[in-house]
Amino acid sequence: MAHTITDECINCAACEDSCPVNAISEQGDKRVIAADTCIDCGACVDTCPVNAIHA
């Protein structure tokens, strides 16, 4: 299952830079993860400074 980014996202882009398959993009005032592209590696979870990414 793909990870998701909650409303706590501060739009810092740390997760986007860490994603090996470029599944994260900016949408409005936060980042979103494309479920069909996400490989569930968890790299984004480890880089999020506000713990806004969950499995």
Automatic annotation (TrEMBL):
<feature type="domain" description="4Fe-4S ferredoxin-type">
    <location>
        <begin position="1"/>
        <end position="25"/>
    </location>
</feature>
<protein>
    <submittedName>
        <fullName>4Fe-4S binding protein</fullName>
    </submittedName>
</protein>
<dbReference type="GO" id="GO:0046872">
    <property type="term" value="F:metal ion binding"/>
</dbReference>
<dbReference type="GO" id="GO:0051539">
    <property type="term" value="F:4 iron, 4 sulfur cluster binding"/>
</dbReference>
<keyword id="KW-0408">Iron</keyword>
<keyword id="KW-0479">Metal-binding</keyword>
<keyword id="KW-0004">4Fe-4S</keyword>
<feature type="domain" description="4Fe-4S ferredoxin-type">
    <location>
        <begin position="29"/>
        <end position="55"/>
    </location>
</feature>
<dbReference type="Pfam" id="PF13237">
    <property type="entry name" value="Fer4_10"/>
</dbReference>
<dbReference type="GO" id="GO:0005737">
    <property type="term" value="C:cytoplasm"/>
</dbReference>
<dbReference type="InterPro" id="IPR017896">
    <property type="entry name" value="4Fe4S_Fe-S-bd"/>
</dbReference>
<dbReference type="InterPro" id="IPR017900">
    <property type="entry name" value="4Fe4S_Fe_S_CS"/>
</dbReference>
<dbReference type="InterPro" id="IPR050157">
    <property type="entry name" value="PSI_iron-sulfur_center"/>
</dbReference>
<keyword id="KW-0411">Iron-sulfur</keyword>
